[in-house]
C-alpha cells in the first residue's frame, strides 16, 4: 500500500478555468481519506489527477516517494471505481471479477483465491456464475467494486461509488466498505458529496469548496471544530443554524444580542471575542440543531416560533424562526409544541460557534 503527497497542485482546464487551486496534502499509508464538497468543487478532477487520467497543470504528485506527474496511468498501480459501473455483459460475475487479474497474468489459483475472498466480503459469492443481466443495480455495483478490490494496487480510488444505489443499499455498502478497508488494510481515496458517507467512512476528511481545501481533519474534529463557516454548514444534517448577532458588554459580562434576545457567552468565548476586537461588532452565531435543550437556565433561553414539526421517532425536529432568523432544533420526542406556537429552547453555550462576518473564519477555532 502507499502514501501520497500533493505539493501545490493546480489544475486549469483548456478553457482557462482553474478548478483545483494550490492543493497541498499528505495521505498516509492505510488512510481512508474522503474528499467531500459540493458538486463542481473539483473532487473528481483531483481523483483523476491521482489516477493519471488528467494532467497536472502545476505542482507535484508523489506516490511512495516517487514523482508521478509524468507517469502513465497503467504504471501508477492504482485501481479506480467509478460512479457508473461497467461490467462485461457476456462474462459471468466470476469472469468479470477475474478479468483484470487475467490480463496481468496472475496465476489461476491466486485469482480464484482473491475472487472468492472479495465475493465473500461483498456478499456476492452466490452470484458468481450469473451474467450481469441477471443482477440488480446494487449487485452490479458490488461486482464492479469486487473487480477492483481483487487487485492489490497501491491505493484504491473511488468516485461516488454508491451514489446510484437506493438509500438502504447505500447504508449496507457503507458498512461493507468500512470492513473492506479494515480487512485489506488498504489506502483508499474516496470522493463523495454525501456527508453521511464522509462522516462514517473516513479516517480523515478533506472538505473542498471551489477547488480549495477548506479543512483536512478527522470526522470528529471537522464536526466539533470546523475551521470556517463553510465547513460548519456543510457537515451535519440538518445543518448548523446561523444567526447574525451583536457582541456587547452587559452587566460586566460579554453577550450576544439579536432580535431582543440576549445570550451570555462562557469565559473562553468572552476572551476570544474581546481579544479579537469584536466588542460592539456583529458576528455570526452558529448553533447545531442538537445543541439546544428543552430546559436550562433562564439566561440561555430563546423562543422558537414553530413553523413545522417533523416527528422522527427517537427525536423531533422543530423548524421555525428565532426572531427573524430561520432555525431548526432537535429535541426529545416528549416535547409538546405545534406549528404556530412559540417554544422556549435553551442554547448550550459551551457548544456554540462564532464566525467572523468578513472572513467567515471560526473565531473559536482551536
Ligand atoms: N474536462 C473538463 N473540461 C473543462 N472543465 C471541466 C472538465 N471536467 C470538469 N470540469 C469543470 O471543473 C469543475 C470541477 O469539476 P469536478 O472535478 O468534476 O467536480 P466534482 O467532482 O467536485 O463535482 C466543474 O466546474 C466542471 O464543470
Ligand atoms: Mg465528481
How would you describe the overall organization of this protein?
The chain has 366 residues and is of the alpha+beta class. The protein has helices at residues 43-51, 93-103, 108-121, 137-149, 167-184, 195-201, 219-224, 229-234, 267-275; strands spanning 4-12, 18-27, 32-36, 58-63, 66-67, 78-81, 155-159, 188-192, 204-209, 212-217, 241-250, 253-258, 261-264, 282-287, 292-293, 301-311, 316-322, 325-331, 342-347, 353-356. The chain is built from 9 helices and 20 strands. A 6-stranded mixed beta sheet has the order 6-7-8-3-9-10, sandwiched between helices. A 5-stranded antiparallel beta sheet has the order 13-12-11-14-20. A 5-stranded antiparallel beta sheet has the order 15-19-16-17-18, with no helix packed on it. The protein starts with a strand and ends in a 10-residue tail after the last strand. The relative contact order is 0.12. The protein binds adenosine-5'-diphosphate (ADP) and magnesium ion.
For the sheet with most strands, the description reads:
6 strands, mixed
**Amount of helix:** 25-40%
* Strand/helix succession: EEEHEEEHHHEHEHEEHHEEEHEEEEEEE
Q: Shape from CA axes?
A: globular
**Radius of gyration, rounded?**
25 Å
Distance between the termini: 33 Å
The chain-level mean pLDDT equals 94
Query: Which structural category do the helix and sheet elements fall into?
Result: alpha+beta
The distinct bound ligands, ions and cofactors come out as: adenosine-5'-diphosphate, magnesium ion
Number of E strands: 20
Number of helices: 9
Name the strands of the widest sheet in spatial order. Answer: 6-7-8-3-9-10
Low-confidence stretches: none
Amino acid at each position: 500500500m502507499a502514501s501520497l503527497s500533493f505539493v501545490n497542485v493546480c489544475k486549469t482546464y483548456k478553457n482557462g478555468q482553474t478548478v483545483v487551486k494550490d492543493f497541498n496534502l499528505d495521505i498516509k499509508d492505510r488512510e481512508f481519506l474522503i474528499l467531500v464538497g459540493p458538486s463542481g468543487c473539483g473532487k473528481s478532477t483531483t481523483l483523476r489527477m491521482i489516477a493519471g487520467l488528467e494532467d497536472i497543470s502545476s505542482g507535484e504528485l508523489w506516490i511512495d516517494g516517487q514523482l508521478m506527474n509524468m507517469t502513465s496511468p497503467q504504471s501508477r498501480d492504482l485501481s479506480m471505481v467509478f460512479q457508473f459501473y461497467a461490467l462485461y455483459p457476456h462474462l459471468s460475475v466470476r469472469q468479470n471479477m477475474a478479468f483484470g487479474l487475467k490480463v496481468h497474468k496472475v496465476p489461476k489459483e491466486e485469482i480464484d483465491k482473491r475472487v472468492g475472498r472479495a465475493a465473500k466480503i461483498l456478499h456476492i459469492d452466490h452470484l458468481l456464475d450469473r451474467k450481469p443481466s441477471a443482477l440488480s443495480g446494487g449487485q452490479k455495483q458490488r461486482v464492479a467494486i469486487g473487480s477492483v478490490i481483487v487487485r492489490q494496487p497501491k491505493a484504491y480510488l473511488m468516485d461516488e461509488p454508491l451514489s446510484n444505489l437506493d438509500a438502504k443499499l447505500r447504508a449496507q455498502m457503507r458498512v461493507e466498505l468500512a470492513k473492506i478497508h479494515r480487512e485489506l488494510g488498504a489506502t483508499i481515496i474516496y470522493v463523495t458529496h454525501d456527508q453521511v458517507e464522509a462522516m462514517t467512512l473516513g479516517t480523515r476528511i478533506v472538505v473542498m469548496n471551489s477547488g480549495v481545501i477548506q479543512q483536512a481533519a478527522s470526522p470528529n474534529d471537522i464536526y466539533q471544530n470546523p475551521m470556517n463557516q463553510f465547513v460548519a454548514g456543510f457537515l451535519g444534517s440538518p445543518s448548523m443554524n446561523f444567526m447574525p448577532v451583536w457582541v456587547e458588554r452587559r452587566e460586566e459580562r460579554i453577550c450576544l444580542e439579536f432580535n431582543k434576545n440576549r445570550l451570555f457567552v462562557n469565559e473562553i468565548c468572552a476572551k476570544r471575542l474581546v481579544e479579537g476586537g469584536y466588542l460592539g461588532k456583529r458576528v455570526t452565531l452558529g448553533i447545531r440543531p442538537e445543541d439546544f435543550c428543552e430546559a436550562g437556565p433562564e439566561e440561555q433561553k430563546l423562543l422558537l416560533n414553530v413553523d413545522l414539526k417533523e416527528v422522527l421517532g427517537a427525536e423531533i425536529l422543530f423548524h421555525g424562526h428565532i426572531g427573524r432568523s430561520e432555525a431548526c432544533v432537535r429535541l426529545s420526542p416528549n416535547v409538546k409544541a405545534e406549528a404556530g406556537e412559540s417554544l422556549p429552547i435553551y442554547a448550550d453555550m459551551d457548544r456554540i460557534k462564532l464566525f467572523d462576518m468578513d472572513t467567515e473564519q471560526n473565531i473559536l477555532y482551536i
